[in-house]
Amino acid sequence: MKNSIFTFLFVICSLLFGICHAQWQPDVRLTNDPAESGTSGNNAWCIASSGSIAHAVWFDLRVGNYEIYYKRSTDGGVSWGTDTRLTNNSAVSGYPSVAVSGSVVHVVLHDNRDGNYEIYYKRSTDAGLTWGTDTRLTNNSAGSLRPSVSLSGQVVHVVWRDNRDGNEEIYYKRSTDGGVSWEMDTRLTNNSAVSGNPSVSVSGQIVNVLWHDLRDGNYEIYYKRSTDGGVSWGTDTRLTNNSAASYDPTSSISGQVVHLVWSDLRDGNPEVYYKRSTDGGSNWSADIRLTNNTAPSWYPSISVDGSFVHIVWYDERDGNAEMYYKRSTDVGVTWGADTRLTNNSAGSYDPSISVSGQVVHIVWKDNRDGNEEIYYKRDPTGNPIGIININTEIPNQFSLSQNYPNPFNPMTVISFQLAVNSFASLKVYDLLGREVATLVNEELKPGTYEVDWSADKFASGVYYYKLTAGDYTETKKMVLIK
Question: In 3-state terms, what secondary structure has residue 341?
C-alpha cells in the first residue's frame, strides 16, 4: 500500500514538474497598426531583459518610412507599456539590436539618413523611460549594415558588416564608458569574398564574434575572439566544413562556455545546428544537428543562463512558418524535444529570445493579422536556474547568508531563510548603489531558499545584494573577479 501511494505521488509530482517547466503563456500582440512591423533576424536580439524589466525593439513602417520603435514591460512580460519611437528622419532606419545592463539600455541600428547606410547608436540610462540622442558610429561612403550589440559591464561591443573595402567585411567598435564615447572602427576580416551577418557575445574579457563567410566557395561559419575585452584579436577560425551553405550564426556565452547555433543546408534543406566551446573559444565540439524534418528550419536565436541553453527558430514543417523552441538543461550536452510555440495559418518569422531570472521571453513578427505585427510570448518558469526551495522546514528567524563562492566568476549562490509567509525581494546593486539585477520578487512560503546569479555580463568589482521580506532587511557584499 505504501509503495502504491509513493508511486502515485511520484507520478503526480513528475507531472506537475513537467507542467511547471512548460508554462508557455498565450501570444501577446505588441503592435497594432496597418503597416509592417519587423524584427531583425537572428544575428541581432530584438528583446533584452534585466530583472523584471523586458525591452523590445523593432522597425516599423507606420509613419510612411521605416523607423525604430521600442516598448517595455516592468513586470516580467505580464503587461506592456506604450510604443516609443526612437528614430525620426525621412530615411530608412532598420535592423535594431538591443542589450541591457541594469538600468542602462543600449540600441544599435542601421540608417540611411546620410545617403548610405551607417550604424547608429542610442541609449537610455533609466531603464527605457527616456532616451538620449542618436550617435553615428560609422562614417564612410559605402554601406554599414546589420549590427549586433553585447555588453560586459560598462564596455559596449558592436559588430556589423561593411562594404567600404569593395566587398562585405566584418567590422567592430567598442565603448568603454557605457556608450558615452566610442573608439575607432576595427576591421576584423580581410578576404576577397563576402563576410556577413556577424553576431557578438561577451563574458568578462572574452569577446566572441561569429559570421558566415564565402571565402571557401560556399558559406561557412567563422569565428574570431578577443581575450582582452576587444583591444586585440586572434586569427579567424573556420568552424564548419561541408559542401553546402552554413549561414546566419548567433552565439551566447556564460562563463567560459560559448554556445553557437546556425542554419545549415548540408542535409538538403535548412536545419538548425549547434556547437559549443567549453574553454572560451579555444576548442570546439563537433556539430550537433538540433532539428530533423523535411521542411526548412531558419534563423535560430539563442540565450544562455548558467547550465540552461534556450533556442528559438521558425520552422515550416507545419506548412507555414511557426515558432519552435528547444532547450538544454546541461550546458548543451543533451537537448529536449522541439516545442511548437505558435499555431495559426499565417507566417511567424524572425524570433529573438532573452532570459532573466526564471522567465524566458520571445518576440517575433507575425502575419496572422493581415500585415506583419510584433508578437511576444513568455514562459515564466522556463529557466529554473533561479530560486530553489531547498528546505521547507520553518526557520526560527529571517536570515541572509554570505554568497558562495566569494569572490566568484561568474556564478554565485545566495541563500536566505524566511520565517513566515512573506513577499520577498532580493536585488543586486553596484558600488554606486544602482540596481543591476532582481533575483527574487514574489510571495514565498516559509523555508530556506537558494538563488543562482550569473554575472557573466557584468564587470569585475564589488556588488551588494539586499533581501527585503516584510519588516526584515539585510544587505551583504560580494566580489566579482574576472
Answer: coil
Block residue for cell numbers 531583459: 49
- Choose the CATH number for 387-480 among 2.60.40.1930, 3.60.15.10, 3.40.50.800, 2.60.120.260: 2.60.40.1930
- Contact between 481 and 409 (Cβ < 8 Å): yes
The answer to whether 371 touches 347, Cβ cutoff 8 Å, is no
pLDDT digits over 359-374, tens only?
999 999 999 999 999 9
Q: What single letter denotes the amino acid at residue 213?
A: D
Q: Rounded to an integer, what distance in angstroms lies between the CA atom of residue 315 and that of residue 323?
A: 6
Report the 10 Å Cβ neighbour count for 442.
15
**Architecture of the domain spanning 23-379:** 6 Propeller (2.120)
The residue type found at 346 is A
Nine cell digits for residue 92? 530608412
Banded model confidence at residue 455, pLDDT cuts 50, 70, 90: confident
DSSP string, 98-146: EEEETTEEEEEEEE-TTSS-EEEEEEESSTTSS----EE----SS-EEE
Q: Give the number of other CB atoms < 10 A from CB of residue 354.
A: 28
62-105 pLDDT, tens digit each: 999 999 999 999 999 999 999 999 999 999 999 999 999 888 99
Q: How far apart are the C-alpha atoms of 235 and 266, rounded to whole Å?
A: 26
Q: Which residue has the cell 511576444?
A: 376
pTM of the shown model: 0.83
CB atoms under 10 Å from CB of 294, counted, come to 9
Q: Compute CA 225 distance to the chain's CA centroid, rounded to the nearest angstrom.
A: 19
From CA 331, how far away is CA 69, in angstroms rounded? Answer: 34
**pLDDT one-digit tens code per residue, 328-381:** 999 999 999 999 999 999 999 999 999 987 899 999 999 999 999 999 999 998
Residue extents of the structural domains in the chain: 23-379, 387-480
What letter represents residue 330's amino acid?
D
Residue-wise pLDDT tens digits, 258-292: 999 999 999 999 999 999 999 999 999 999 999 99
Say whether pLDDT at 20 is over 50. Answer: no
